[in-house]
From TrEMBL:
Stated name of the protein: Lrp/AsnC family transcriptional regulator
Keyword Transcription regulation attributed: yes
Taxon lineage: Bacteria, Pseudomonadati, Pseudomonadota, Alphaproteobacteria, Hyphomicrobiales
Pfam families named in the record: AsnC_trans_reg, HTH_24
Organism of this sequence: Neorhizobium phenanthreniclasticum
Alphabetized PROSITE patterns for the sequence: HTH_ASNC_2
Keyword line: DNA-binding, Transcription, Transcription regulation
Keyword Acetylation: no
């Protein structure tokens, strides 16, 4: 983070809000030449600060009306079982995000399905029968109060 200056942080901030910005548009937004914006963007990409560009799709317009958080406890706690579960989750397009946790549950999954029947199939026919899974607890999202809006970008305080 120390290698980033104010212009880099502005570029990151603007691009995470709109990854389609051209270098000319960035130039106007941050008062830097288009060629400098291009060089800085390329460096931010090559150094891994920018991992990818993607479109944010509207899940409801695509018929995925149900958003669910699913807590999963593994059947056994060993490396092989965790790897089996990770392989399962990677192959499931319904799983938007998966987090390995400390505490009571081993994983939290953020899942989308078309409806309750889709959720029932996902839990009863996919998750629960899998050898790595012991317990599943589902919570249907009633309302999204805040969705991912980007990573907070600020220069760290100097010590």
């Amino acid at each position: 983070m120390d290698a980033l200056d104010g212009y880099d942080l502005k570029i990151l901030s603007h691009l995470q809000n709109d990854g389609r910005l051209t270098n000319n548009e960035l130039s106007e937004l941050i008062a830097l030449s288009p060629s400098q914006c291009s060089r800085r963007r390329a460096r931010l990409e090559s150094e891994g600060f920018i991992q990818t560009y993607r479109a944010h799709l509207n899940r409801q317009k695509l018929g995925l009306d149900l958003l669910v958080v699913i807590a999963v406890t593994l059947a056994t706690h060993n490396r092989d079982n965790a790897k089996r579960f990770a392989r399962l989750v990677e192959d499931l397009p319904e799983v938007l995000e998966c987090f390995s946790l400390t505490g009571e549950m081993d994983y939290h999954l953020k899942v989308v399905t078309r409806d309750l029947a889709g959720l029932s199939h996902f839990v009863n026919d996919v998750l629960l029968p899998h050898e790595s899974v012991q317990h599943v607890k589902t919570s249907i999202v009633l309302n999204v109060l805040k969705d991912f809006g980007g990573i907070p970008i600020q220069k760290p305080a100097k010590s």
